[in-house]
Fold each of these.
Amino acid sequence: MTSPSSSPTTSPIPPVVPAGRLRDSEQPTLTLSTDAELRPWRPADAQVLVAACQDPDIVHWNRPARVSPNGARDKIAHWHRRWHDEQAAIWAVAGAGGGAAVGLAGIGDMDLRGGSAEFLYWLLPAGRGRGLAVSATVRISRWAVHELGLHRLRLSHSVANPASCRVAERAGFRLEGTMRSALLHADGWHDEHLHARIAGDDWPDPA
Ligand SMILES: CC(C)(COP(=O)(O)OP(=O)(O)OC[C@H]1O[C@@H](n2cnc3c(N)ncnc32)[C@H](O)[C@@H]1OP(=O)(O)O)[C@@H](O)C(=O)NCCC(=O)NCCS
């Protein structure tokens, strides 16, 4: 039986982000540039997820399970539930004005009480090489820190994935260390870099 002094309602440390901020709001569309935006996933984007789960680089680094078009629609519905359950905020990286999706960026493993979350992203080949992963990571970080109120954002990637390391550096996520044998990929266990930014860290120069 819980004693009154250990009851969560008497905790001396309040939640970093009070519950309800995502649950009671609609997921916003966030502008990246005149050409690109982050918008909520739509059922009509299902084929983009099917393609992502067949792209060799995304399969290798992000390890998604293969999905059928129906499975992809279920996944998109799941991400919308995760927003309202305050567990994750996942956007499509897309052309401006509701254009076609070319990738995914967002935060999962969200802990509103503790004030932290972890980044995830991938781009189909058509979206790569245009700085979209950096701009999406910075834009979502600004939203997560300034609008949602999170304190710490983590980003981890295999040490064998220099493109992802560069995205982290350019988005202002400092390297904090290497986690040994941290994630199992198709070719075995990989060491992972742990990067993070905390509220108050500088924002990268938009150029
Ligand atoms: C990683 C990924 C998201 C990068 O997105 P992107 O928008 O294409 O990134 P860019 O092409 O703008 O490159 C970002 C930086 O990485 C560098 N880079 C790209 N490929 C690289 C490579 N193979 N080796 C070293 N650096 C690389 C670019 O030169 C750029 O740095 P710069 O701005 O200093 O020149 C994208 O390549 C991708 O989805 N890859 C497959 C899946 C994946 O790796 N997911 C991440 C899992 S953690």
Note: The longest strand covers residues 174-185.
Amino acid sequence: MIIVGAGPAGSALACRLRPRYRVLLLDRPLAGAGAASRIGESLPGAARVLLQRLGVYDHFLAQGHAERGASVSHWDSDTPTWFDPVRDPHGAGWHLDRVRFDAGLREAALAAGAALVDNGRHLRVSHYGGRWCVDLEYLGQGCAAPFLRTHHATVLVDASGRSMVAAKQLGMARRMEDNLICLYAHLPVDARDEDQATRICADTNGWWYSVRVPSGQRVLAFHLDRDDLELKVLRDPARLLAKSRRHTLFAEVKPATVGVQVHARPAGGAGLDLDALAALPEGFFAIGDAMLAFDPIASQGLFNALATAEGVAHAVERYADGFKDARDRYLDEMRTVHTRYRQRLGETYAAVTRYAHEQFWLRRNSGALRE
Ligand SMILES: Cc1cc2nc3c(=O)[nH]c(=O)nc-3n(C[C@H](O)[C@H](O)[C@H](O)COP(=O)(O)OP(=O)(O)OC[C@H]3O[C@@H](n4cnc5c(N)ncnc54)[C@H](O)[C@@H]3O)c2cc1C
């Protein structure tokens, strides 16, 4: 089996299917370094069962992730609404150190016997003679010239996140559900900042999120539309912080901004066309964000990465046992997940009536962005 992408979804799947299958994980050079600016930190308690099934739970607990504390939101008014995750029957969940989390899953996949190639580029995917072929240009060591090698497998999985590189190669387009962008910065924490709560707040042209993460920093994130004229201005950390502090919920957040960088990340919901995927030759799957990427307000992406890895592991086992409908069943599960997610997302955005006349909220509630 070949898995393109050794993020949480790809590593979890590799871990789950070894030692029964030979697994080759392909990733990009320097993916680990890129992880330093990763966002996507909260993991619900329901993920515990999935981590246990992968055999990584004890190691995960030893990685120093923080237990998720209470969250407070100013959503439809400035009256705070508190939620304490200890009320979650699955447990409170965690604020992750994303770098350690991703690295831990990848190490577990390698320890289970998966092979990793992360010095390749210009990947080409095709299907020939009933097998999937991946042509990969390897970077030569030192002055050596790059060389091409072809890998073959009966199962090919796209786990390359939002870039969905293998699916794109097969002519599949990403179905964008909206144009949300996340601007975020990891801010140093002021000595007086003892706050542990997750803070969420609606604004006229988007919504805010802030929490302290195990690295000791505070993440401050603002989600707005890609065509918003303020996007460029808010790339300046001082402006981003100043805008956040107009809200009482963030007024007491007092980090420094010197030397801080504001990153931008596409954050809108997106996914593959499941009917088009079903029409591809058998043995092709997609998991994690490559399959279905969620709006961050759902805080569901990492759980989905682990759950889809489990779903595809099950499908691959059924497929190997001769069940030809294994992929169709997996895709049916994905249709159900997508429908539930869209319904909850619609309800979440519709709950903000105070800015209902503003473009950001109008777009999400007019039905134009809903199926
Ligand atoms: C602003 C924002 C906030 C978020 N907050 C949360 C949150 O609080 N909680 C939560 O659960 N989720 C959150 N998420 C979502 C979460 O980060 C993703 O769902 C998760 O990273 C998906 O994991 P993945 O393995 O599918 O993809 P990724 O983590 O994107 O991993 C993909 C892997 O594929 C590799 N790759 C990419 N292109 C290629 C290529 N051409 N060749 C080879 N390899 C390639 C990459 O290097 C990477 O290793 C958030 C997302 C955003 C944008």
Note: The first helix runs from residue 8 to 17.
Amino acid sequence: MPWAAGVVGDLAGFVASTYMRGISLIQVPTTLLAQVDSSVGGKVAVNHPLGKNMIGSFYQPQLVFIDVHVLKTLAPREVRAGLAEVIKYGVIHDGDFFSYLEGQLQQILALDEGVLSYVIKKSCAIKARVVEEDEREDGVRAFLNFGHTIGHALEALTFYRNYRHGEAVAAGMVAAAEIAVERGLLEEEEKNRLKKLLDRAGLPVTVPLAADEILSILPRDKKARHGRPRFVLPLALGSVNLFEDVETDEIRAALERCRKTE
Ligand SMILES: NC(=O)c1ccc[n+]([C@@H]2O[C@H](COP(=O)([O-])OP(=O)(O)OC[C@H]3O[C@@H](n4cnc5c(N)ncnc54)[C@H](O)[C@@H]3O)[C@@H](O)[C@H]2O)c1
């Protein structure tokens, strides 16, 4: 069976969107990340030396075929990286789902098919609902970028070699939660719950690079507006909002707290 993980799905999707001005596309994702995220929503792109996902389009598949059995051969590290995006859905949209993940984490990591099917369906439903409302990312679709502002910086600064995408997003979610706590938007206890779940899932919860290095690259983020980074910040486990007014000092302070392992 050919593998259509995130990278292959993005590439094949982009080719399908341009070949003969577009041919039918069916996504058959085989990593957890591709099943819960990249195969749904229609974003297809390839990287360019000037930036990640620089050449691409929006192109909806006619069908996404997901078989949880294929995850049995997936490396545990890849399963954990996909789980970061699943946890993200709980934070941005559904506090009950977040609690469910806290309770079922061991079954998920053990690839229990019943639990996994539920988790994948729920994740796809959340993503589909957001994309239906805002396909072109003029509004709520940006919420899906929770953890991605710092996450993308980590990936770029380490030349896409050190982090799986989901791992960088995990550390980015903790950094965003730190900013939210400092702004009085999120209870410290909620941030700790997020950090603990990510940690139990074997995902990074610290940002080991110097704050200045990260700050220097943020204005180049594709999502930045007039050189100002945009942050999706949690207000609670289950609710987020988009902020374009996060000051450099706030980001620096949060990153410094994230360097500590505790
Ligand atoms: N289009 C989108 O909306 C979107 C969203 C999130 C991420 N992405 C992109 O997705 C990419 C990451 O995708 P990914 O996490 O699927 O990684 P990946 O495509 O690199 O696959 C990870 C590894 O797993 C292997 N593999 C795939 N399925 C397997 C299976 N069933 N058993 C054993 N090995 C298997 C692959 O050969 C590869 O070595 C990144 O480039 C990211 O930018 C796109």
Note: The chain is about 50% helix and 10% strand.
